[in-house]
Amino acid sequence: MNITILGATGWIGGEITTQALLRNHQVTAIARNTEKLTAENVTLKNFDLQSDDDIAPLLAGADVVIASIGGRAAGNHELVARTAKRLLAALSGSNTRLLWVGGAGSLEVSAGVTLVSSPDFPAEYKDEALAQGEALEVFRATNTATQWTFVSPAAVIYPGASEGAYRIGGDEFFTNEQGESKISVTDYAIAMLDEAQHAAHINQRISVAY
């Protein structure tokens, strides 16, 4: 497959890039500064999402675009939902699917109650979580022919190797038998690539955790 990864220099985007290469996909990496990327056999393209330049030409020919956009590095959380709108528009009329690296904050801990609204949700991550929630609403509200999947990680995503298995959920926040919500970045990336290859959850939000 031809896979284009937007935000490939971030730690999640970087791991997705690594896993895509391990599966012998043709990978194009897009970032504001791709000089940080040292992986071989990757087509590098520089693009600043804060610019008004047309991103559509950079996405042409991709079977799947995977977008890992946080906004924190740019100091602009409004960038997240705006990029979701921008990518849906750019891919309109193509056969390219869009996979989005989402957040856990919009997962529901009970009916209609999101994780980010919990009193003990870490304040330092709240703006980013709310921004990802706004992006999810963009996907759900936009009338588009573009096929998308919003992939929320567990509450804790950490550097680490694969544990060999993961679980897929929907909008509901879920935990393991110890009451923990976690996933390694490696297994999150593996789940993302599995979705890219199998297209099992079109126009849905899914969550990934142990």
CATH topology: Rossmann fold
Shape: globular
- Overall pLDDT score: 95
Give the % helix.
25-40%
Q: Class in CATH?
A: Alpha Beta
Major sheet: 8 strands, mixed
Whole-number tally of structural domains: 1
Question: Between the first and last Cα atoms, what is the distance in angstroms?
Answer: 27 Å
N-to-C SSE series?
EHEEHEHEEEHEEEEHE
Rg (CA only)? 16 Å
Number of helices: 5
CATH architecture: 3-Layer(aba) Sandwich
* Assembly classification: single chain
CATH superfamily: NAD(P)-binding Rossmann-like Domain
GO molecular function: oxidoreductase activity, acting on the CH-NH group of donors, NAD or NADP as acceptor
Pfam families: NAD_binding_10
Protein name: NAD(P)-dependent oxidoreductase
InterPro entries: NAD(P)-bd_dom (IPR016040), NAD(P)-bd_dom_sf (IPR036291), Polyketide_Oxido-like (IPR051606)
Describe the protein in words:
The protein is α/β, with parallel strands linked by helices. It has one domain (2-209): Rossmann fold (3-Layer(aba) Sandwich). Helix content is 29%, strand content 24%. It has five helices and twelve strands. It has helices at residues 11-22, 56-59, 78-91, 126-141, 185-198; strands at 2-6, 26-31, 42-46, 64-67, 97-101, 108-110, 113-114, 148-153, 156-158, 167-169, 182-184, 204-209. The strands form three sheets. It has an eight-stranded mixed sheet with strand order 3-2-1-4-5-8-12-10, sandwiched between helices. The chain is globular, with a radius of gyration of 16 Å. The relative contact order is 0.16. One of its GO terms (molecular function) is oxidoreductase activity, acting on the CH-NH group of donors, NAD or NADP as acceptor. InterPro entries: NAD(P)-bd_dom (IPR016040), NAD(P)-bd_dom_sf (IPR036291), Polyketide_Oxido-like (IPR051606). It holds the Pfam family NAD_binding_10.
